[in-house]
Amino acid sequence: MMSLFKGCPGAINIREVVPDDIDCPQCGRQVEIWSDELTARCPHCGAQLSRQQGPACIDWCSFAEQCIGPEKYERLKKTSPAEEDAS
């Protein structure tokens, strides 16, 4: 049986973060953003960037906080797309 404290496969990009490059909509240059971040600031022009992220396991799994940790859980839940859609 899998230990939930090791986490589920659905949360791997939240627990074990990886960098990603997104294009700045203002200046067009690439900006590095990590898989557990929803926003970043462009170091070239200063624009605030937002990553589009669909629903994730933290939106429905009752073990999500234990799986990814309380600090990361609270930070990501503040900007959860599922909660934005409900309003």
Characterize this entry briefly.
By secondary structure, the chain is α+β, with helices and mostly antiparallel strands. Helix content is about 25%, strand content about 20%.
Outline the structure in words.
The longest helix has 8 residues, at 70-77. This protein has helices at 12-15, 64-68, 70-77, 81-86; strands at residues 19-23, 30-34, 39-41, 48-50. The chain has 87 residues and is of the alpha+beta class. It has one domain (9-86). A hairpin with a 6-residue loop joins strand 3 (39-41) and strand 4 (48-50). Mean pLDDT is 79; it is low at 81-87. It is elongated, with a radius of gyration of 15 Å.
Write the topology of this structure:
Blueprint: H1 12-15, E1 19-23, E2 30-34, E3 39-41, E4 48-50, H2 64-68, H3 70-77, H4 81-86
Antiparallel strand pairs: 1-2, 3-4
**Count of DSSP E strands?**
4
Oligomer: single chain
Q: Indicate the percent of residues in helices.
A: 25-40%
- Please compute the radius of gyration using only Cα atoms: 15 Å
User: Strand-residue fraction?
Assistant: 15-25%
Envelope shape: elongated
Low-confidence stretches: 81-87
Mean pLDDT: 79
Specify the number of helices: 4
Counting helices, strands and paired strands, the structural category is alpha+beta
The rounded distance between the terminal residues' Cα atoms is 38 Å
Q: Give a short account of the largest sheet.
A: 2 strands, antiparallel
The largest beta-sheet arranges its strands as 1-2
| Total of domains | 1
